[in-house]
């Protein structure tokens, strides 16, 4: 037997605390009754408590709660395996980590919004190989994998402060993404290959259009997602706690970062992809997922899938019966009737 949600089993550790609490409560009640008067006189006036019944009710409650915790952890049994074909794409997400992505014309900031969207995109993948290119003035790469949990873990805490070189090099990002896709091309049946580019579109000292043309010759499509406003937004500087401590300035004036949608539209158009603009108040990952769904997914080797039968009913029904018995059983014995002769 296995548990699908084993973390819930930690709640079993609270049961000893419950037992101690109930024992203290019983002791307090006994002490309170003793303070009311003579114990023999009280026993003659009220139905006596049954310690055996009290122990049964307490044990039934504790065991029932333990069974409910086990049921909540989703016990599973009856393992069996089936062969399931996988169908997928090769996807490289190029995420802009330049300082301009700290601008707050998207909530709570461009970079946090992009990472949230990316997390939702990853959650919707099924059998696709996924790689990452993180870029500012240089690039960091994460090879293609189907281990989505590891990819999300890699993304969780990384930000602009982790990039060794500032600026925004779109061209380098597209080149690095194309190379990642080329490294897995020919490994298994052919797949459609795409780059999902999340950026505000500003470029410094690179040639993104030339990089896009090279990607197009290799059959790679670019789906560009633009973040930010076209009117421009100041770029904040953050302190060690992540709070805004000021704004980037150039020659005494705040630096305003603007969405360069024209460049992103060209990148997508050159590769037969699509440009999408992320609205400040609404998530926009659904159009990206819909666009990816329309691409031809190639079937790859079948994989073994394990199936388990849910066994929570084995724990729920005994727990229900124990709780029912605990509710119906009184702690007090029925008082004996004493008849007095004339």
Task: Name a few traits of the molecule.
342 residues; alpha/beta; Rossmann fold; 2 domains; six-stranded mixed sheet; three-stranded antiparallel sheet; 10 helices; disordered C terminus
Tell me what you see in this structure:
There is one protein chain. The protein has 342 residues and is of the alpha/beta class. It has two domains: 2-74 and 312-328, no CATH class; 84-302, Rossmann fold, CATH 3.40.50. Helices cover 39% and strands 24% of the residues. It contains ten helices and 15 strands. It has helices at 15-36, 39-45, 51-72, 110-123, 148-156, 170-184, 208-217, 261-271, 285-293, 313-328; strands spanning 2-3, 75-88, 90-96, 129-135, 139-145, 193-199, 220-226, 233-234, 236-238, 244-247, 249-250, 253-254, 256-257, 274-277, 298-310. The strands form five sheets. The chain has a six-stranded mixed β-sheet with strand order 5-4-3-6-7-14, sandwiched between helices. β11 and β12 form a beta hairpin. α7 (208-217) runs parallel beside α8 (261-271). It is elongated and about 90 Å long. 29% of the residues are buried. Residues 337-342 have low confidence and may be disordered.
- Would you identify the regions where 5 or more consecutive residues have pLDDT less than 50? 337-342
Shape: elongated
Order of helices and strands: EHHHEEHEEHHEHEEEEEEEHEHEH
Q: What is the averaged pLDDT score?
A: 80
**CATH first level of the largest domain: which class?**
Alpha Beta
What is the spatial order of strands in the main beta sheet?
5-4-3-6-7-14
**CATH architecture designation of the largest domain:** 3-Layer(aba) Sandwich
| Beta-strand fraction estimate | 15-25%
Total number of strands: 15
Number of helical segments with 4 or more residues: 10
CATH fold group of the largest domain: Rossmann fold
How is the biggest beta sheet arranged? 6 strands, mixed
Rg measurement, Å: 32 Å
Give the domain tally. Answer: 2
Q: What proportion of the residues is helical, as a percent range? A: 25-40%
Q: What's the end-to-end separation, in Å?
A: 69 Å
Secondary structure category: alpha/beta
CATH-assigned homologous superfamily of the largest domain: von Willebrand factor, type A domain
């Amino acid at each position: 037997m296995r548990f699908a949600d084993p973390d819930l089993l930690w709640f079993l550790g609270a049961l000893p605390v419950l037992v101690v609490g109930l024992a203290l409560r019983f002791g307090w009640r006994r002490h309170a009754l003793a303070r009311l008067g003579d114990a023999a006189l009280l026993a003659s006036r009220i139905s006596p408590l049954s310690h055996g019944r009290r122990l049964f009710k307490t044990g039934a409650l504790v065991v029932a709660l333990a069974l409910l915790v086990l049921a909540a952890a989703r016990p599973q049994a009856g393992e069996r395996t089936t062969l399931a074909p996988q169908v997928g794409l090769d996807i490289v997400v190029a995420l802009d980590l330049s300082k301009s992505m700290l601008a707050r014309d998207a909530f709570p900031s461009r970079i946090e919004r992009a990472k949230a969207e990316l997390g939702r995109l990853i959650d919707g993948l099924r059998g696709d190989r996924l790689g990452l290119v993180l870029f500012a003035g240089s690039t960091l790469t994460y090879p293609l994998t189907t281990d989505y949990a590891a990819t999300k873990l890699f993304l969780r805490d990384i930000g602009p402060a982790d990039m060794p070189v500032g600026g925004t090099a779109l061209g380098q990002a597209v080149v690095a993404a194309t190379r990642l896709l080329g490294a897995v091309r020919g490994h298994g049946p052919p797949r459609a290959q795409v780059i999902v580019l999340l950026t505000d579109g500003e470029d410094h000292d690179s040639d993104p259009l030339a990089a896009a043309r090279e990607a197009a010759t290799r059959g790679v499509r670019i789906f560009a997602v633009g973040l930010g406003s076209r009117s421009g937004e100041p770029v904040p500087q953050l302190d060690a706690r992540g709070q805004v401590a000021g704004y980037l300035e150039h020659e005494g004036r705040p630096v305003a970062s603007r969405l360069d949608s024209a460049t992103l539209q060209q990148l997508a158009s050159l590769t037969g992809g699509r440009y999408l603009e992320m609205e400040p108040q609404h998530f926009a990952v659904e159009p990206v997922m819909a666009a990816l769904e329309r691409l031809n997914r190639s079937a790859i080797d079948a994989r073994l899938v394990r199936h388990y039968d849910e066994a929570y009913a084995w724990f729920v029904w005994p727990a229900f019966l124990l709780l029912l018995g605990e509710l119906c059983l009184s702690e007090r014995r029925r008082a004996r009737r004493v008849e007095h002769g004339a």
